[in-house]
Amino acid sequence: MNLQELRAKQKELISLIYKNMELEFLPYFIFYSYIGARICYASSHPLALFYEEKFQNIEKFRKFLLNLKNHGHYSIFAHTPIFVNIKDFSIEEKYLLAQNFYKVFWDENNEYALFNLRHLAENLEEEEFAKLLNVEPDLSKISIRFFKNFQKIYEGSFEDLSQELLKDEYNIWAIPEVIVIEIKKEHPFRWIGVIVNGFSRIFSHQFVRHTWLNFNQRSHRYTQIDKFVLPENFDESKKEIYERIINESMKYYKEFCKDIKKESARFIVPQGVSTTVLATGPFLVWNDFINKRAIPQAQSEIRSLAKLLKETLI
User: Is it the case that residue 303 has pLDDT exceeding 80?
Assistant: First the structure.
């Protein structure tokens, strides 16, 4: 089956998903798609994205997401899970869905399948997809655990989160932050969002290998480079050399940016540059990530994240 045939088959089958999805959960998870899209282009703190006018104004929120669908930016919709009741599906229907859609998880015991909003964005016409977006994000069920330097500084609802925690004084060295987001409403598969902020691109190259998770990352094609990660095993002499390299490369980076795009100028920037990543997925995939990375052989940043998630989620 070629890609064109696959797309045609998916469009033929999408009504099964559309008719049997649990719509009651959509308001609690739709915010993930917005955060996934905006995290690529924002230099602000990732949690500050919830305070943007485009998020707060429901009409602008819907228009923003619909424009992304119409321009073919489907990947951000994978962050929003779709729970499909498969109780009345025939064996043949289950087989066809499993054969023709990627990143689908099945729980036969509880008669649910886990799809995501990307499956619908790719296959529904604009009018039908717009109906799905006719929901208002409900943040009342969000539970946030916020770690700075791997120490918990906040646990609670988004509504009680102080914006003071998001402030950051300028310093060349990034402080690693981990934000674990869960929904305090019982739902199949236990969908979990994790935002890492102040981790290096060396880390992110490893992180995105866990392809059963969904990722969006801050883009230095569009945002300014501002911080770098200092490896924990650098002594003072190595730190001094590293800082000299950073200062020298940043001097030329700013010079290059005057007449070429950031996407080209960034080639001279050290790999230790700080980035932000949103990753989402069901608990079983996060558990697999933890098992593979919370081990002595893993690189220090990704090992530290895996160990924190092991303590937090399991």
Answer: yes
DSSP secondary structure of 263-313: HHHGGGS-TTBEEEEEEEEEHHHHHHHHHHHSSTTS-HHHHHHHHHHHHHH
More confident residue, 7 or 144: 144
Q: What is the 3-state secondary structure (H, E, C) of 143-206?
A: EEEEEECCEEEEEEECCCCCHHHHCCCCCCECCCEEEEEEECCCCCCCEEEEEEEEEEHHHHHH
293 tagged catalytic: yes
Q: Can you give the pLDDT at residue 93?
A: 94
Concatenated DSSP letters of 42-83: --S-GGGGGGSHHHHSHHHHHHHHHHHHHTT--GGGGGSEEE
Same domain? For 108 and 36 the reply is: yes
CATH number of the domain at 278, please.
3.30.70
Which residue, 292, 291, 290, is CA-closest to 308? 290
Q: How many structural domains compose the chain?
A: 3
Q: Are residues 78 and 18 in the same domain?
A: yes
Catalytic residue, chosen from 7, 145, 293, 303, is 293
